[in-house]
Amino acid sequence: MKVAVIGSTHAGVFAAKQIKADHPDAEVHVYEKNQTVSFLSCGIALWIGDNVSSTDKMFYESPASMEEQGITMHMETLVEDADLNAKKLAIKDLATGQQSEETFDKIVITTGSRAIKPRIPGIDSDKVYDSKTWNNAKDLKEVTEKVKRVIVIGAGYIGAELAEQLSVNDKEVTLIDGLDRVLANNTAPEFSAVFQQAYEDNGVKLALGQMVSAFEDTPDGIRVKTDKGTYEADIAILGIGFLPNTALFRDQVEMLPNGAIKTNKFMETSVKGVFAAGDSATVFYNPTQKDDYIPLATNAVRQGILVGKNIEKPTVAYQGTQATSAVELYEMAYAATGLTKQAAARKGVEAGTVTITQDYRPDFMLTTTPVQAALTWEKGTRRIVGAAFLSRHDISQAANVVSLAIENGMTIDQLSMTDFFFQPNFGQPVNYVSAVAMAAVAEADKE
């Protein structure tokens, strides 16, 4: 079996490794246009903020380590064209310019995503930076050590982390977003309000509910114009979001309107023998029970593994995702899974929600700290569809607990009666996960 894997960030790396592990005799070829594999781009903001021990550790594999596992790596190699039905690829070696064609038994599309870059006048200025790739990261690390004023555009996770890390490292930061609050697509209003206050307390200028209309170079840096104001800095950084990098395969496989490739539960596309995973593909989103586009490394890793397990025949079905995620800003941890009430409304799910605040362990302990917890459920079925937790205490595993509950179709009633231990060092007699579920039951019973 001869397999081509196109792209080698998370999905491509894990697909290639799993194919080789399950099929040692398979001939696996990975095509990557860059010089590196497996870059953990989620660490860009942390590196800029001097919170990374070693840049080498921002990669969990290398081309050499992949070769050692019996995988043939074609680095700095671009797939210029693809005939998916014929399983034929047109390939160009970017170092030598040499072009060739290869035919395969199976093709795996793991081309990832590309940063959204709207057609705005001046956006191609060399003072406007992206925050996606390893090369972007190196450029940002070098320039942010020299500048004093930075404009960050986009207040989702990427922009939020960049703004926070720059501000705590004595940069003058302006954070611009088209929506009216920070992390608007990730959090409910009561949570984003906490972070907005933290940004203001740390000197970040918030320019929310504003759309960027133009960039202009100035003698001292860059000027960013919006529909409501003008802002100046030494540089601007884009953190707007991502789209699937799948133009090469358009009209050959079924896609969502944004270009995300649809797959079945075994990660196979509408073309037999062609698989897709990671940021180039859809996910099955358990809270809505529908296909969606949610580019997360965790989704990419699991989907890549499934490609390997199913490359020869359907074997292990995809369990779906809850899009569980977390962020830490100004020493406050936020972890969430599934939908907020606002996101549920956008997705057509009629949902209820409740939020509580509870100290994470008993007040007789010498120290404790509050946890803000929210739980969201589908009205009628009482099925859990989301949760969020915010605290200076590490509440990250609470989101994983509720993620498991969503995946298994649990109701708020079941979660409220789930067995969680009590020990004063770690928690209350009624754990905050149980407590928010109990509050949800009480609220739902009023309906």
From TrEMBL:
Keyword annotations: FAD, Flavoprotein, Oxidation, Oxidoreductase, Redox-active center
Obligatory cofactor(s): FAD
Classification lineage: Bacteria, Bacillati, Bacillota, Bacilli, Lactobacillales
One MF term in the entry's GO annotations: oxidoreductase activity
FAD/NAD(P)-binding domain segment(s): 1-304
Pfam families: Pyr_redox_2 (PF07992), Pyr_redox_dim (PF02852)
Record family assignment: Belongs to the class-III pyridine nucleotide-disulfide oxidoreductase family.
Name used for this protein in its record: NAD(FAD)-dependent dehydrogenase
InterPro entries (UniProt xref): FAD-bd_OxRdtase, FAD/NAD-bd_sf, FAD/NAD-binding_dom, FAD/NAD-linked_Rdtase_dimer_sf, Pyr_nucl-diS_OxRdtase_dimer
Domain Pyridine nucleotide-disulphide oxidoreductase dimerisation: 331-427
Source organism, top-level taxon: Bacteria
